[in-house]
Amino acid sequence: MATFLYRLGRLAFRRRHFVALIWVALLTLAGVGAASAPAAGNTSFSIPGTEAQKAFDLLEQRFPGMSADGATARVVFKAPSGETMTGKANKATVEKTVKELKSGSEVVSVADPYAGHAVSKNGTIAYASVKYKVSGMELEDSSKDALKEAAQHARDAGLTVEVGGDALSATPETGSSEVIGIGIAAVVLVITFGSLLAAGFPLLTAIIGVGIGVSTITALASALDLGSTTSTLASMIGLAVGIDYALFIVSRYRAELAEGREREEAAGRAVGTAGSAVVFAGLTVVIALVGLSVVNIPMLTKMGVAAAGTVAVAVLIALTMIPALLGYAGRRIKPAGQKSRLLGGGRTPKEPGRPNMGTRWASFVVRRPVAVLLLGVLGLGAAAIPAASLELGLPDDGSQPVSTTQRRAYDLLSEGFGPGFNGPLMIVVDAKDSPRPKAAFTEVGDEIKGLKDVVTVTPAAANQAGDTATITVVPGSKPSSQTTEDLVHAIRDKGADIAEKTDSRVLVTGSTAMNIDVSQKLNDALLPYLALVVGLAFLLLIVVFRSVLVPLKAALGFLLSVLAALGAVVAVFQWGWLSGLMNVEQTGPVMSMMPIFMVGVVFGLAMDYEVFLVTRMREAFVHGEKPSQAVVTGFRHGARVVTAAAVIMIAVFSGFIGSTESMVKMIGFGLATAVFFDAFIVRMAIVPAVLALLGKRAWWLPRWLDRALPNVDVEGEGLRTAEERRDADPDGERELVRV
Questions:
Q1: Tens digits of per-residue pLDDT, 472-511?
Q2: In this structure, which long-range contacts are made by residues 723-732, counting pairs with CB atoms below 8 Å and at least 24 apart in sequence?
Q3: Which controlled-vocabulary keywords does the entry list (predicted)?
Q4: What confidence tens digit (pLDDT) does each residue in 365-393 have?
Q5: Given Cys at both, which of 298, 537, 641, 729 links 251, Cβ 3.0 to 4.6 Å?
């Protein structure tokens, strides 16, 4: 591996014009494809295998044109103080608004509040239900604009009007967050390299890589039903790892120059050593992202595969474009320890013999490994304690900021009709095989009326064939409560008994039931996903480090950092600690996707730091250093760039904390916290402490396994042999590197 990448690095350095032309051509081709591709809406959303999805599918068959999984909106009206919604003027305004709502091209139906008895008992609040042909994620912007305009016209007439439901759901904008992340990354890179030119290379290659990845996703969006949300994760992860991978190769190049090597040789060795770590670090990220397909949620699978493709592009561009750019830069890139003036000329030599901060820290850890290990483990363990109280759920309008119309509509409906009115359950009764369908419909309704926390049960509405009916159930508790979830399970349990008596099938669906099923599906998939991702990465790291204990330590450290990060998420978003500082307006259950999302993303990124830092230790050990000294050497060369990479990653994710969307805010906080814990506590403290305690045992590998594993030579031992042969036979070395 190291020898092949060494040759690739030297080739890219020499043939830099050709390499640059290839990447520019690929970027142009992807850009043209994205520009000429048909516009794609948001991807369709389905959860195969869940009861709620089965009910939606059945409704599509038995109620043609019903659009059971179509978007819904509730336009909520409140009369001015001292008036009621049944007053003549207010009623005329509502009827005019209903007529305006019906004119939309994607509207299936609009329920008049007065015909449908949708006025509160005190007469002050009423609502009109709007049903659309497509889901909220597929709804056209024109339909959303028409909905907002109709509500505004009613406001202009003097009513308080708010709009709830999923019809106004939108993909959060993340462009400003990415700009903030890039800005902070630029500052960190300039501080790390002391040169605008060297700092610009990782940014340039990362932007090119993300540009190719996102443009390709856009070009294929319509054909593959990728949708506008798929590129969000790809751009976020691609940008972060793209900067990191290029950062490590440029840093190694400067270190090779400091050892006196010629620039082409230094580029080859940088790609052969740091590039080997990039390849295997990228593989761990790809494994984690592609592994999201285990959950069997199509949208999540597409997001994972698209992001994995962008990571693969980031790896390839770091291995080829970076040495090509180094060839263009020539002597303007200074050796490590010699920082260029920010605008170009001169250099300031570093004071010789003075150990850097990474060396001093590693030396301290090697001297006090037990104390550092205990402090790190106990600290992360304390942070993880709140995770024991983790409650999972999916956000609804009740978790929106109070400044949004969705949240205000939610509160008005709770005020006028009760909290459960915001999450009605739809019961689908399939009586096709029943000898008495109408009796089955009636019995289902009667049985549900007797359950706890049921406020309203509507009469069954049968289809034209008379073999299937829908029943609406309004719970007494809010949609995200445990009581409502218990009611869903109780109805399903009762449905199993009814099925035996009446030869009918009872299914529970609706947005509330769908959220419950999604949460359960994600919970059930977490352990298999964790086993798959950690297991495959464990095998990969055994090949990289040729050790059993080092990969085991890496996996255990990752689990500790993820649990600590989940604990922090629970403390802030569920318990409300520091909620004012984080601008968390509404506490509640943690988003169901958070644990599996954090496992996938953070595991890949955590293994990046593990591979980059520990491969340098492995390299020093293989080249003859004592285990404790190898730890110090690894930190001397790698701590600065790992720290810079972690700060960049934290900056990218922290930019999302400022979002008004609670889900985006939670993801940004969780990922930033997890990277902080993993990079600075696990990799910078626990890892060197454990390696110092293990000594040579850290690199133990059974002989039979050593013989069975392929020798990928990540530490560059083959390059050391090639260098020795060159000293003895310069002509032979030239033959070795010729491609």
A1: 888 988 887 888 888 999 998 888 887 777 788 889 988 8
A2: none
A3: Cell membrane, Membrane, Transmembrane, Transmembrane helix
A4: 989 999 999 999 999 999 999 988 888 77
A5: 641
Q: Note the pLDDT of residue 45.
A: 60
192, pLDDT greater than 80:
no
- Within-domain flag for 133: yes
First-to-last CA distance in the chain?
15
What b-and-e string marks burial along 438-453, b requiring 16 or more CB atoms within 10 Å of the CB?
Answer: eebbbbbbebbeebeb
552 and 603 assigned to the same domain: yes
> What is the per-residue DSSP string for 145-182?
HHHHHHHHHHHHTT-EEEEESGGG--PPP-HHHHHHHH
pLDDT score recorded for residue 565: 92
pLDDT of residue 122: 87
Same domain, yes or no: 676 and 545: yes
Task: Answer whether residue 205 is part of any domain.
Answer: yes
529-541: burial string, b at 16+ Cβ within 10 Å, e else? bbebbbebbeebb
Secondary element (H or E) of residue 440: helix 437-449
Average pLDDT over residues 504-529: 85
As for how many domains the chain has, the answer is 4
Task: Say whether both 320 and 361 belong to one domain.
Answer: no
Could you tell me if 527 and 542 are in contact, meaning their C-beta atoms sit under 8 angstroms apart? no
Domain stop point among 109, 137, 168: 168
* Same domain, residue pair 560 and 658: yes
CB 412 within 8 A of CB 597: no
Same domain, 292 and 193: yes
* Locus of tokens 């010789």: 352
User: Which alpha helices (DSSP H) does 477-593 contain, by range?
Assistant: 482-502, 511-545, 549-569
Listed residue (614, 619, 638, 623) closest to 694, CA to CA? 614
CATH code where residue 343 lies: 1.20.1640.10
Q: Tokens 């850290």 sit at which residue?
A: 698
User: With pLDDT > 70 as the criterion, what percentage of the chain qualifies?
Assistant: 87
Integer Rg of the chain from CA: 30
443 and 409 share one domain? yes
430 CA to centre of own chain: 38
Chain centroid, CA 185 distance in Å: 20
Query: Is the predicted pLDDT of residue 345 greater than 70, yes or no?
Result: no
Whether residue 40 has pLDDT greater than 70: no
CA-nearest of 739, 730, 719, 725 to 2 is: 719
For residues 680 and 649, the answer to whether their CB atoms sit within 8 Å is no
In a domain, 48, yes or no: no
Q: If DSSP codes are grouped into helix, strand and coil, which group holds residue 42?
A: coil
Strands 392-393 and 590-591, by their bridges, are parallel
pTM equals: 0.76
Residue 497 included in any domain: yes
Give me the domain span that covers residue 334: 1-36+173-347
Torsion of CA 275, 319, 557, 236, to 10 degrees: 170
Region of poorest pLDDT, from 177-181, 194-198, 257-261, 555-559 = 177-181
CA gap 239, 174 in Å, rounded = 13
pLDDT above 80 (res 721) = no
465 and 476 fall within a common domain: yes
* Structure-derived torsion over alpha carbons of residues 254, 320, 620, 243, reported in degrees to the nearest 10: 70
CB-count burial class (<10 Å; 0-12, 13-18, 19+) for 262: exposed
> Looking at residue 488, which CATH number applies to its domain?
3.30.70.1150
Structure tokens at 52: 């709620």
Please, are residues 645 and 611 in contact by the beta-carbon 8 Å criterion?
Answer: no
Q: What is the pLDDT of residues 241-254, one digit of tens each?
A: 888 888 888 888 88
Q: What is the DSSP letter of 683?
A: I
Query: What is the tens place of the pLDDT at every residue in 391-411?
Result: 877 767 777 777 788 888 888
Taking each continuous run of H as one helix and of E as one strand, the counts in the chain are: 24, 13
**Torsion, Cα of 623, 626, 630, 636 (10° steps):** -100
Is 236 in the same domain as 252?
yes
